């Protein structure tokens, strides 16, 4: 295994919003390739109960984008205006920009679980989310390795049922995220600024 290449993939898979190529088509096969890789992720009790809804229809993408914008546009604009940290401010501005362009992103991918999630039971909820989050991240890594990008968004979940109605998703199915997928404009992504691992790592006890 080429550790350098793996490390580059892990450290440069960024949240991509403004650098999504809205004009270049994305083939069905490349999406399926990435889903095949994502399906190798572990699932709780080996349930393998993930499902993937891929949206390419322009009308449905527009409907989803309108719901997304209704949830997030005002909040993200205010957050961008009040953030004091420059990096955080850039993130909010980028997220707000996505509310304007989401309908034009060529593919929307919604990872789902074939079960409702009981958030009142932490063990059950954690196991359920652990069945879809690793697969979702593997999907994003696979996109990056093929010159595509995305961002893990959850804003639409505030109106999850409306999106479900657009796509015919049954009420027993839980949507986990919305990935807007496109080829990236350039591939020169860099590692993000993060604190040293030593400053956030404790050994054998909290604070040690």
UniProtKB/TrEMBL annotation:
Keyword flag Oxidoreductase: yes
Domain Nitroreductase: 13-182
The entry's keywords: Oxidoreductase
Matching SUPFAM superfamilies: FMN-dependent nitroreductase-like (SSF55469)
GO MF annotation list: oxidoreductase activity
UniProt family annotation: Belongs to the nitroreductase family.
Protein name: Nitroreductase
Source organism of the structure: Mycobacterium asiaticum
């Amino acid at each position: 295994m080429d550790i350098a290449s793996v490390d580059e993939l892990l450290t440069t898979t960024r949240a991509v919003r403004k650098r999504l190529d809205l004009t270049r088509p994305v083939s069905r096969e490349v999406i399926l390739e990435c889903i095949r890789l994502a399906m190798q992720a572990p699932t709780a009790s080996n349930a393998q109960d993930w499902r993937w809804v891929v949206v390419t229809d322009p009308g449905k993408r527009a409907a989803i984008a309108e719901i997304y914008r209704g949830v997030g546009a005002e909040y993200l604009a205010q957050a961008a205006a009040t953030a004091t940290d420059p990096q955080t401010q850039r993130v909010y501005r980028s997220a707000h920009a996505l509310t304007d362009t989401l309908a034009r992103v060529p593919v929307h991918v919604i990872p789902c679980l074939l079960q409702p999630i009981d958030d009142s039971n932490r063990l059950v909820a954690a196991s359920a989310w652990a069945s879809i989050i690793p697969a979702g991240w593997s999907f994003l890594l696979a996109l990056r390795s093929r010159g595509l990008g995305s961002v893990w968004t959850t804003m639409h979940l505030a109106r999850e049922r409306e999106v479900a109605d657009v796509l015919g998703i049954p009420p027993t199915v839980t949507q986990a995220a919305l990935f807007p997928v496109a080829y990236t404009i350039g591939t020169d992504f860099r590692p993000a600024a993060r604190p040293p691992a030593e400053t956030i790592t404790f050994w054998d006890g909290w604070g040690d």
